[in-house]
Amino acid sequence: MDIKRDPAAVDKASGVIMQQQPSPDGARPIPGWQGALVLLLLLGLVASACGQEWITPVAESELVEQVLFHSEAVGSTVSYHVYLPEVYAERPATRFPVLYWLHGSGSGWLGIPWLATYFDNAMARGDIQPLIVVFPHGLPQGMWSDAKSGLQPVASMLVGDLIADVDQRFRTHADRAGRLVEGWSMGGYGAGRMGLTHPELFAAFSMLGSGPLQLDFLAEGSVPLPQRLLVFEQVYGNDKAYFEALSPWRLAEQAAALGLEPRFRLIIGKDDALLQSNRAFQQLLDELELAHEYLELDDVGHEPTALLQILRQLGDWSFYAQAEPSVPIFQDRFLEP
After folding, report:
1. Tell me: the pLDDT tens digits for 153-189?
2. CATH code of 326's domain
3. Residue 151: left if φ>0, alpha if ψ -120 to 50, beta else—which one?
């Protein structure tokens, strides 16, 4: 599969489209979203115009390919996008670890070009090992959960159908050691849920700017109350007990009670409206004695591009080393003892 690599550039902080410029480290220019409204969509501040469709438009990046497959859980066709590392074509006998990257609420597919370039640059620099990066579509407000009504089986689609399709379609490490899951905002909540609920599927998980982490879904947060009320009805059936049962908070308690030792990180900006709920969740993890990485970043709000760029500047790539390396030259550097 040949994937050309020549995306356009954009201002990473504002999301406003610009003329092509080199990225700060002189690597491939990082594309962004189509204007400031798009950034709002990624941050989960506006609802997506595509409603509850399971197929997104094609992401505007030559680094990724859209895949359509039939989901038994959904009962229809579902889309996802996939990034293949450059070495994938060069090593036809090699199997690669997979990073599942879960989007925030809104039109998550609009953020894929920026993210694909971010990871492509990191691999080109040798910061992270070659990974297949999969961008599932979890619906604009799907919460990476199975809706109580049964009408939006997002979690079942992901763990029951999509992962199997990826393993069948691409040369993957088709086991726990070869899978990571990471997400932003709603996707960070989803990554926590997936990692804690399915430790048999993922070697580690990463929660970035995550929410909701509190036990009361309608408590103050970064999303306007009318939107929270809509999601609370559509996903959780206005059932506080159902929301609580699905929450990373309760899942962490269950993991500790079972003696599980998940590997994960929790990262939040100090200017993020979700900071206090992340701090409360982190305190819970300490009380439960669940080992984890916790990081608060100065001068970062609820902005995925800003958070990821700070992590790049800090050289914090250790999370991606927790999947089993596939390319021999990366074994010593990236395989942890």
Report:
1. 999 999 999 999 999 999 999 999 999 999 999 999 9
2. 3.40.50.1820
3. alpha
